[in-house]
Specification:
By secondary structure, the chain is mainly alpha-helical. It has one domain (34-189, 209-395): Proton glutamate symport protein (Orthogonal Bundle). It is built from 19 helices and no strands. The protein has helices at residues 2-27, 35-62, 66-98, 121-126, 133-139, 142-163, 167-186, 190-204, 206-210, 214-239, 243-249, 251-260, 263-276, 282-295, 298-314, 321-334, 344-355, 363-367, 370-395. The two termini are 32 Å apart.
Length: 405
């Protein structure tokens, strides 16, 4: 037990990930009941995320002057859009080079029809704004929660400026500390939760589903890795720190993101390591990281781009310059506020695919491997959020260089 604790959470998760794959492939579908353990872990984390996000955003915004908030908000959005467009473009390039849709056919794999929401980009934008924030919290609608938290924080900022102090802000800071401590307790279970989830996925889904779409996963995986390599190099040059050092300090964040396939579940670890391992100030991390959770989805943009090209090739649809531009723009817009829990990629795909004139039935072709796609999506999403927070912290001179060295 003592040796296990000395390994640290990162190494524990990696060990249990490998063990889970071996057990799942060895035992097969009989291992399905173990999913309950993973589901309990995910729920324990998810029950805290809404409060964590709302509390962090209100505290961050409430502590800022309206002028500083506007500057940081615009800068964050600009970086989010820039990285998302680059990620989508990389997905397009790799799809055109590797042709993942060539040779794929729609057969029994698409027999399991999925529900396609009747949602347009306009509907998506309107849905950013809540009618009832309690309902938004209950449903885990992060973008609506964040919109409310920003407005609440702005009002608190004005009160703070008028009165010189706010008891509510002090109370919020204490509340946020308690939530973080609770999440820290829950993260002790992370290796076992990951083991259960990976064992279930490999045991029940296994190789039989992956093989027919191996080229799609290979294309998406290579595009993700390529994007992350060039992005880390860019961030390293911008911040004037070795990209390898940044990657090393983010290792635990990336492993949790990859194994849980949920940006929301990775957020508590992301916020902790951003401050303690990357030296990002609390002011920046508590504002930029929750915003990135809802507004920055590099991995999802890459996924949507690769998926659209793949399905276009499956159906023999023409791919020209206007098609490529449309895919990049739609992939970027559809990532805004998309569900940040496992399975959210299919929701965004169901928005983009009809807009591109691709038959919606093709979505079912990719539904069976959504968990595996989600691993790469979440990895890129979380990496983008954290590195953008790091760049903004550099701009604001709010990096502790004694930590990041």
């Amino acid at each position: 037990m003592k040796l296990w604790k000395q390994l640290g959470t990162t190494n524990q998760i990696m060990i249990m990930l490998v063990v889970g794959v071996v057990v799942g492939l060895s035992v097969g579908e009989a291992v399905a009941p173990i999913k309950m353990v993973g589901d309990v872990f995910l729920r324990l984390i998810q029950m805290s995320v809404v409060l964590l996000v709302m509390g962090a955003v209100v505290e961050a915004v409430g502590s800022l002057s309206p002028k500083d908030l506007g500057k940081l908000g615009v800068k964050s959005l600009a970086w989010f859009m820039f990285s998302t467009v680059i990620a989508a473009a990389v997905g397009i390039i790799f799809s055109l080079l590797l042709n993942p849709g060539k040779g794929l056919t729609l057969d029994t794999q698409t027999s399991n029809a999925i529900s396609v929401p009747d949602t347009t980009i306009n509907d998506l934008v309107v849905d950013f704004f809540p009618t009832n924030v309690i309902k938004s919290m209950a449903e885990g609608n992060m973008i609506q929660v964040i919109i409310f938290a920003i407005l609440f924080g702005i009002a608190l900022s004005f009160i703070q400026k008028e009165q010189g102090n706010s008891k509510l802000l002090d109370l919020l800071k204490e509340f946020n500390k308690i939530i973080i401590q609770m999440v820290t307790f829950i993260m002790v279970l992370a290796p076992f939760g990951v083991f259960a989830l990976i064992t279930w996925v490999t045991g029940t889904i296994g190789v039989k589903v992956i093989l027919p779409l191996g080229k799609f996963l290979l294309t998406f995986g290579l595009a993700t890795v390529f994007f992350l390599v060039i992005w880390f190099i860019f961030v390293g040059l911008y911040v004037k720190v070795s990209p390898l050092l940044i990657f090393k300090r983010m290792k635990r964040i990336l492993i949790v993101a990859f194994t849980t396939t949920s940006s929301a579940i990775a957020l508590p670890v992301e916020m902790e390591d951003a401050e303690l391992k990357l030296g990002i100030s609390k002011r920046i991390s508590k504002l930029v990281l929750p915003l990135g959770l809802a507004l920055n989805s590099n991995g999802l943009a890459t996924f949507l781009a690769v998926a659209c090209i793949t399905l276009s090739q499956v159906y023999g649809l023409p791919i020209n310059l206007s098609t490529i531009i449309s895919i990049v723009l739609l992939s970027t817009l559809a990532t805004l506020g998309t569900v940040v829990v496992p399975g959210g990629g299919l929701v965004a795909l169901a928005i983009v695919v009809p807009s591109m004139g691709i038959p919606v039935e093709g979505i079912a072709l990719l539904a069976g491997i959504d968990w595996f796609s989600g691993m790469f999506r979440t990895l890129s999403n979380v990496a983008g959020d954290t590195t953008i927070a790091l760049m903004i912290a550099k701009d604001e001179n709010e990096i502790d260089r004694n930590i990041l060295s």
